[in-house]
Amino acid sequence: MRWWGWGREDRRVLLTPELAGLLHNALGLDGALRVPVAFGDVTLGDAVLQPRARQRLEEAVGGAAWVRSDPAARILHSGGKSYVELVHMRAGVPYGAPDAVVFPASHEEVGAVLSICSAERVAVVPFGGGTSIVGGLAPIPGAQHAVISLDLSRLTGVLAVDAASLTISVAAGTRGPALEAALAEHDLTLGHYPDSFEFASIGGCAATRSVGQASSGYGRIDQAIEGVRIATPIGELAAAALPASAAGPALRELIVGSEGVLGVITGLLLRVRTRPARHRYEGVVFDTFAGAADALRIAVQDRATPDVVRLSDELQTSLLLAAGESNGRRAPLGRHGLRSRVGVLVIVGWEGQRDSVERRRLHTMTLLRRGGGTPIGVAAGRAWAASRFATPYVRDELLGRGVLVDQFETASTWTGLEPLRAAVVAALVESLTARGTPPLIGTQISHIYDTGASLTFTVLARALEGQEESQWRAAKEAASAAIVRAGATISHHHGIGRDHADWAAAELGELGVSSLRALKDHLDPVGVMNPGKLIPAT
Ligand SMILES: Cc1cc2nc3c(=O)[nH]c(=O)nc-3n(C[C@H](O)[C@H](O)[C@H](O)COP(=O)(O)OP(=O)(O)OC[C@H]3O[C@@H](n4cnc5c(N)ncnc54)[C@H](O)[C@@H]3O)c2cc1C
Question: Cα(169)–Cα(245) distance, rounded to whole angstroms?
Fold first, then answer.
């Protein structure tokens, strides 16, 4: 993973001249290219882990090689991939860095590390794929004297497959591509493809309740989790892995989404499916976002949900057109009628066995047509599929051109969706325009439910050089306040982390927050687990 941005070192996704021109004009960019500082110029504070704590940790994980404090390890674990974290990183001044990075190789080693850290008063930040965009990986020591990053990259692999029950047991550090490759050998799939799929770990996905691009059909990660094993500072907590149970409240639900503040998820029992024989993705154009949303509502409520749903508003649709395909070829959308009309694009897709794909597609498309949609064929779907993991690479290019670029998401009922969208857009426009940087704001529905849908906002503005953080923070505050006022969720899938912690109280309620805090105090009495995340400060 690039230390100053996203993705594989050997991959870059260049902006098309059309997109670069559009952004240059709309945002008033100066055309200059900004490059990150040299790796050697990144500033790090001294590592303060006490020698006794280090020695005990080395003994617990198999030697000094697995407890690293070299600059490379500390820089690569100094945070996640949010806009502000990348701005700081590119300038060579990360928010902070862990004093050491520890690499356990088993559940038992994780348990030993947590108990040593509690005794030695060292904070622990679990590190899966390192893709958090809400500050979930910020190395905050809290009340402890030092902080380690607990890298789970040695805890990998599919441990067991039950083909008859369609379940698998998997180690938490396993990343998306490795998991799907292992499942392919058994003709199975999890079908969980977040935009961060290339790097996100399955434990990190469970810890943040992530969603994938096909989650409207496959379900969110929480719906795929049958059992979970977690190491806490006071021992192991394993929620029973059964198809159903009436044995009280589901403990599993307390662990999923706990973002490392209670302990470390070391293994999961997941529901999987037979690998699809057929994938079909295609485009449908509507006149308006609200009209398309209504057609999708009718489809989901009539049990005609496609597996993939990506409804882009007018602005996002025009950005998609301008962006072309990620691999440098032009997107074929224009040839299929989209360019010639004002409208919004929905990508819909189905995965499964041949007959069921055709049957389900027919049902959905009938309803979408009836709702005013015009199908534009599979070329649009193929263009989406070819570039489905390219957006994070595009963000790096935008950062290099001095663009403030952020994405955040919420969800609401169908009734509340349009007022929510209008309120958040207005809040962002007001905040950014007040600083002389009027933004472009795109919205997307990417997950639909019987009762409502997610809304993702893409914010683009000219970054105020040297004031990027305060500019972003003001806009983020304004948007979060609008979300909370509208009664929507502060996060549909990126989680709470550090950046949303102060807003979580509005959603959880006072008693909800104090109940969570009581559970944390019980499982983590010294307070070493991921300080400053998820649970609002008192
Ligand atoms: C470009 C980009 C695109 C993204 N797209 C999506 C998307 O489409 N859908 C989506 O849901 N999210 C998305 N995300 C957010 C992020 O990738 C997901 O939240 C993902 O679930 C995080 O997985 P990870 O392994 O990288 O976790 P990390 O970033 O390593 O950790 C996330 C949080 O969970 C904790 N944690 C990690 N592993 C464990 C564990 N085993 N036990 C306990 N706590 C743990 C960490 O301490 C941290 O607080 C995106 C992020 C980026 C940068």
Answer: 19
Question: Is the CB–ligand 1 distance for residue 128 below 6 Å?
Answer: yes
List the residue whose alpha carbon is closest to atom 36 of ligand 1: 204
The overall average pLDDT reported for the chain is 94
Percent of the chain scoring above 90 in pLDDT: 92
For residue 18 the two structure tokens come to 């059309």
**Dihedral of the alpha carbons of 316, 322, 326, 329, in degrees to the nearest 10:** 150
CA atoms of 529 and 147, how far apart (whole Å):
10
Q: How far apart are CA 350 and CA 306, in angstroms?
A: 6
pLDDT tens-place string over residues 141-166? 999 999 999 999 999 999 999 999 99
- Packing angle of the helix pair 83-90, 391-400 (nearest 10 deg): 50
Q: Summarize the confidence of residues 350-365 as an average pLDDT.
A: 96
**Ligand 1 within 6 A of CB of 344:** no
Indicate whether residue 259 lines ligand 1 (CB < 6 A).
Answer: yes
d(CA 364, CA 236): 45
Q: Cβ(176) to ligand 1 under 6 A? A: no
| Closest atom of ligand 1 relative to the 392 alpha carbon | 1
CA-CA-CA-CA dihedral for 60, 62, 67, 72, to nearest 10 = -150
* 4: Cα within 13 Å, side-chain hemisphere: 20
- In sequence order, the β-bridge partners of residue 405 are 460
| Pocket of ligand 1 contains residue 494 by CB under 6 Å | yes
Rounded distance from Cα 176 to ligand 1 centre (Å): 11
State if residue 194 touches ligand 1 by the CB under 6 angstroms criterion. Answer: yes
